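Predict both folds.
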Amino acid sequence: MHIPPKSTTFAAYWKHGVVCVTPPLRRCLPMRKHLLHILLAALLLTACHTPRQDARRLQRTLLDRQQKALALTAQLQESLAGNSFDSVWNLTQNAEPGILFYVFDRQGMVYWSDNWLAGSEVILRRYDQWYYHQFSNAHCVCRWTRALPYNILTVIPVKYAYPIQTKELHNTFIAPFRASDRLQVLPPSAAVPKGEPFAVKDGDGRTLFAVSRPDTVPEYRQENLAESFSYKEVLGGNTYRDSARKMRIYTFMEIVLFSLVFILGIVGLVRNHGFRNMRLATKFLYISVALLLFVSVYVFFVSTMHVRRRHERQQEETLQRKTLYLQKALQDLYFWNLSLSERNAEGMNIDLRDLSYTYETDIHVYDMQGNLVGSSAPLLFEKGLISRHIAPEPFFSKKADMLLHERIGDLEYLAAYTGFYNGNYVQIGYIAVPLFLSSEEVEAEAENFLAKLLPPYLIVLLLAFLINFFFSRGLTQPLSELSERMRHFRIGQPGNRISYDRNDEMGQLVTRYNEMVEELERSSEKLARSEREGAWRTMARQIAHEINNPLTPMKLTIQQLQRARRMGDEERFNEYFDKSTTLLIEQIDNLSRIAQSFSQFAKMPEVVTSEVDIAQRLFSVISLFRQNSGQVPIRYIGAQEGVCALADSEQIGQVFNNLIKNALQAIEGREGGDIIVMLKQDGQTVEVSVSDNGCGIPPDIQDKVFRPNFTTKNTGMGLGLAISKNIVEGSAGTITFETSPSGTTFFVRLRCPV
């Protein structure tokens, strides 16, 4: 690089191809975002440790940044083509963070988007090609672009390169570049051979810089800037860690308390299998303690933030007052000056140093072109820690009075800017007054606040816990007693009522419970009486039904005898008389047995299984029903005798009576009624089916057919099929049915004797 002599003017620098660039410090991200970046960087560093991996990651990130920078540069060219510096300002202020722009004409630098870089010189090199350049405080990748009559320098900072490092000031990689801080960034001349993985290249494959890891770690050192008031915290370290010990103890106590309560809460949830299964008193306790903890944490953090913010506002107000005092003092000192230049820098430095001792702050003065002309701490600029150009916000926005957050590396500080006026109130420059927000003072304020706040907090939390514990137990004690009484509640036993003499919600609940107990006892007496009456009514219906079933065929038999007698056929009468009297005697015996069985506990007779000639019993029942009043034909298919099965010889005839009677009732009033009774033997099973061509059984009542007391007829008690089901199942058989709109068929299946 060709460097002209110190006396060379800016135009001579341009003539020799050298431009002095000291852009201002850019506005930084909030501290929380910065801490988040540090945590993410730590995670990445744990995954990638080798220089080769760091170099690959740096190259990928650099290629992405270069693409974004080229797109922004193209937009900047369009704005400069129209000489619209307002659009240039809006574009660069809203641009991607970490991409810097500097615009030059033949007179010098006319625009800078940031004053990130400091105290270095760059050469106007080949256009449209990326190259590496090290400024005084950063390693960067640069690119020149022509935008007649301007030249644009696009800069992508990669890593800080401050000449000194302290406990607070570190030469870390700049976001979004992340790698181990121990890695060194080397210029292309010191790069490893082509093709090695430690080289970082651009999109065209040219090596921009290389990274390597030295064997030794640089030691931190402190710079003695005795005349500096604002930057001692940066260069000499601070006592934050020492002053924060008590605060860490308070925070630890708070964390232990909350952790203990949280663990106890989790244990309670696990033991009770969730919040819903907890007792009401425990739920009250959980909710109240959770609300108290939430409010306490909220008030704690809000109060702490308020203390910090209040202290910061006080420091900002103090800084603004100092700036106004300094503005008036400098106006008096340079009352007759029409401009500021580097020729009076030495004398101005003396004046600024005197004022800095008076107001205990550092002072920087810039001319109307934004160049530094004087400072109370010139060593900062000589070492390249701070740019020699003013921040772009007060310079290009035409608003000289403002507060800005600026940075040296990752350390943030506050800078107040105002105009420098002479005696005629003509602006001849800018005044900048920096202030590092003292973390020591802020933490001391927070520490004092916590020392007063935490003890009452702990006492209040403990008292609230105890009060809630006893209050919840007293509140839910009547409920517990009510639950216990209900658990041991027995109708008719003494001690079911609860005594509670308070007229609150619990008292009303206890009163309703006692009224419910009295009403329940009265209702139980009525229910018992009703059940007894219902049982007798049900038994009476069953007796009537069982007696009525044999009476129907007996009536038909007698009517048939009367008809045969009137016909005068004595031989036929005698034959039918002998057969009928036998059947009548059987039915009368059945009635006697039913009456005797119902007299014993009003139950149906027990089923006594024996070998029965099913064919003979079935045919005899069919013979009785063939002479029915409706003249409905009953067709029989099967043997008349000789088919045996296991059943109750006395009750199986009643089953056939019920089925044939139901079939007759199903087709009552219908023309063309027909009943088919079929008997067949299939292996060890005898099946009797009774089919009718009635209207069938509706789907909504099919599951109720065998239910006692259920009937769809105007007459009858609904016990026939229920009794038949009991008789068949008592004989180890089954009774089922199939139905459709064209008729219904009942199937009785009995086992054959072995």
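Second protein follows, with its predicted structure tokens after the sequence.
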Amino acid sequence: MSSLARWCFRRRGVVLAGWVGGLVALALLVFGAGAAFTDSADMPDSESATAYHLLGQAGGPAGGNVVRGTIVWHGGDVGSGTLRDRVTAVLGDISAMPGVKQVVSPYTAAGAAQLNAGAGTAYATVVLDKSAATEPVVQAAERLRAPGLDVQAGGQAFTEKPAGSNGTEAIGILAALVLLLLLFRSLWAAVLPIVTGLVGVGASLLVVMLASHVVDLAATSLTMGALIGLGVGIDYALFIVNRHRKALRAGASVPDALAQAADTSGRAVVFAGVTVVIALLGMFVVGLGLLTGMAQAAAVTVLFTVAAALTLLPALLGLLGYRVLSRKDRKAIAAGRFPVAEQRTRETSLPARWANLVQRFPVAAGGAALVVTVLLASPVLGMRVGNADASSDPAGTPTRAYHDLMAGAFGDGFDASLLLVANTPDVASAQAFATLVHRLDSLPGVAHVADAPGRGSVASATVIPTTTAQAEATADLVTTLREDVIPVAEAGTGLQVYVGGQTASSIDVADALMSKLPLYLGLIALLGFLLLAAAFRSVLVPLVGAVSNIATIAVGLGAVTAIFQHGWGLALLGVGSVAPVMYLVPVLVVGVMFGLSMDYQVFLVSRMHEEWVHTRDSRRAVRAGVAETGRVIAVAATIMLCVFASFGFSGERIVAMIGIGLAIAVLIDAFVVRLTLIPAVMTLLGRVNWAYPRWAERITPRLSVEGPERVQETHEMMAG
């Protein structure tokens, strides 16, 4: 690592030109090729997927190939001749548009149930190819608007996909700059981590846009990449700049200081970055293409931020020289005095005093930290995973206006329809299905049931619930149909009935993701344990780290549950009313937060381990680790808190969920877990912290976090 830092120092002009040239080249490629993001997701094996497959085999529209939307109008006599003629003409134009498969008008026999004259409301359903442009359809519908006549478009086809962060991350970056100025007392030192983070994130997002042509990626991958990349990128650069400044203040030359920073904090950055990437790529076990695509995009962003911290940052530090120090420090060095007084800093700094307090009362400090963590994590026990619908969108938005029009005339469950698809190989099974459909009208939770034309041996029916798609009662209805009602109808016949539809599909995807979550969490916890064990030659240190990481994840998900599901303070975020936790959020929070928690664990424990190697005094090692890294960890966590929280005010529900969940988790992880709970536990454990079986020592590969000289010292002392 030191060789790389020295090379970047000597060739700093080449390094800077390479990064600038690379950014320009990537920007030109993106300008020419554009992006090809997709919102299609591979449907996991499920009952709803089987229903769509069976319907597709019979010649019906397969769920994965088409989307459905609704055009609703309200006002006056919706069945009158004049309005009817205008609407019919517009619907005729829409049916002729490219990609439109079917339009069902309320003025036809097939759509008779789509008109409520008493409420002055009617709607048409539109079925389109998934790749079809929807803007012309919406524009044609909006031409119907007139004084006294409201027209809205909604449903799956016409719902706008989540946008980006709307620039709110700029607030987080400004807050980060203020914190860095307070920490370093130097404008150049404060700007460097932000510049490094922005360059790394910018380059990676351009690569992600190009990669969208060959890998299925959602547009939200850019927001995810920016959210994670800015947080870790600024933090990684912060740790390196801090170590470089410390070496300069101790009397090292610029190239020597760079080498020292690279061989200590630089190695920790690589280790931490690899851990985050592993945690993100672990999402492959979930088996949902869209989610793994987002994980790949975030992993690319982390790799670019690590590369920027290890190459661009040393070049910039070499270019600036001593200007990264405060004016007071530069004057002292010019006079032959070195500002660092490490022993005094250990004993009198706020982190040192905090470490002494925790070590004086380890049981009380650790117990209090544990209670806080458990209390904040407790809401996760009631977390309900699902998909928010338009009923929870902010008042005044087009989607909420659409929902209110439809719900007022056709009930809350108008957009939560369930599709029953049946395989009826004989007359008896066909009769059994007809009987089932007839009985469903009296089932609690069902508002309306409609038969659909049969296709050979495949029959279908549409069930409209009385509640919205996101309501727990709707999920209970799906369970009742699948586990109680349908098995009774199938008994003794060749009938096979599958429950599909968009609502059932969302439930199936959520169940599939959550069923894989324990495996995913266990996998990355095991990998994190093995990496820390190899780095620090300890069993308890990585075990405590892995368990505490899981606790931090629970805090993040508990915060998301409390705010977005229970509504505690939700009005401040401007994303609407309460709704289930969107099913992508738990998996993303687990992957991202586990990696970030490991970052702080690595930076904290690597300094403890370094002191342990030199003194063999575990209590002193714990105190030195907190005293010397506590300030930087606190500032780094506060910066990440600002960046993540800024995404929480983006106005997009899923982005806000992830941003707020990560912000609160990072805050608790740094101040409660890393700087309180971990030191308390390690103080109580004493020398046992660093115990490692001899047989494990022989088979464990050697990883260097503290630098080659320190690793060699470690091995010599262990051998002795």
